[in-house]
Specification:
With 310 residues, this protein is an alpha/beta fold. Helices cover 41% and strands 13% of the residues. Strand 5 and strand 6 form a beta hairpin.
């Protein structure tokens, strides 16, 4: 697969459905098929060339590589799936569903659902932990008033609905990964368990700004460096800063306001997960990031689940 270095290579190589299926089998099973129903490791392929049958006498179910994956029951050609995954993981500031729909000749609804399934695919499958030196900050995400409907602006002005922002907590390890978590608020009681879970090692040095929620949390760690932005301080006396996490937030919010224009609180964590995946793998090439993403196709997100009310 060394020859696949760009989107053009992906589009050219994966024109045939059989080639796509073979690639998915290699990425998901590493050449050793596993029954998604009973986890048996000795299925055999049927005559159609893509369907397997479990050899366990207690199962005997038929399946393809798509069963149990984010692509299960898809009506779209796999070539469009692979193109979408490459685009979603390579574009630094993401791509809107409207633009993706035009690029891949899809409906906007299909493109929107497709992108959310890719976000589901790359979200962390286990808790990410950071150590050494970790910068922590929070940001607030909300749509600009001018982009809202006249009706919603009227309701906000009358106090019928609140003009609330979504709070996103960000943690980044020096020269390492970033973790973005949507939280209800920026109070100490809310942030403490989240930060403790992501930074479990008390020997870690944490660096924050002067927000009132951080001193009580920082007291639990080896060292808490504070950069007082309110006093026009951008480098602590010990030489620590929060520029890295602020830079990550800058890219994240540029993607929101420049590409998506507005995202709801309900789906904000999904957008944050995809951004975190791209940022944390920023030191590798786009093609390698694509291959790493293709190893994470396990799991399925249904449309009903995606649009359900919280």
């Amino acid at each position: 697969m060394e020859q696949l270095k760009s989107l053009q290579d992906i589009l050219t190589h994966f024109k045939e459905e059989s080639v796509c299926l073979e690639f998915l089998e290699q990425m998901r099973w590493n050449g050793k098929p596993v029954c998604p129903h009973c986890k048996a490791h000795r299925p055999y392929k049927l005559k159609d060339g893509k369907t397997y049958r479990c050899s366990s006498r207690f199962c005997r179910k038929d399946f393809t590589v798509l069963v149990g994956s984010i692509m299960e029951n898809t009506k779209l050609p796999l070539s469009k799936w692979l193109a979408c995954i490459y685009i979603a993981t390579a574009h630094k500031k993401g791509i809107s569903s409207c633009q993706l729909a035009r690029d891949l000749n899809l409906t906007q609804k299909s493109a929107w659902f497709l992108m959310h399934r890719v976000r589901e695919m790359v979200k962390p499958k286990s808790d990410t932990t950071l150590s050494d030196t970790v910068q922590i900050d929070e940001t607030y995400v909300k749509g600009k008033a001018k982009n809202r409907s006249k009706y919603k602006r009227k309701l906000i002005a009358e106090g019928v609905i609140k003009d609330d922002a979504t709070v996103v907590l960000g943690l980044v390890q020096s020269n390492g990964s970033v973790v973005l978590k949507v939280v209800p608020n920026a109070e100490t009681a809310t942030l403490k368990p989240v930060i403790n879970a992501i930074v479990p090692n008390s020997d870690t040095v944490i660096v924050t700004d002067g927000h009132v929620s951080y001193p009580a949390i920082g007291a639990e760690y080896k060292q808490h460096e504070v950069v007082n932005h309110s006093e026009y301080e951008y480098l602590s006396a010990s030489g620590f800063h929060t520029n890295t996490i602020e830079g990550a937030f800058s890219h994240f919010k540029r993607a929101i306001y420049g590409t998506y224009h507005f995202i709801t609180s309900k789906h904000c964590q999904r957008y944050a997960d995809l951004f975190s995946y791209r940022y944390s793998t920023r030191k590798i090439k786009d093609a390698q990031r694509f291959f790493e993403a293709m190893k994470q196709t396990e799991g399925r997100l249904k449309y009903k689940k995606l649009i359900e009310k919280l």
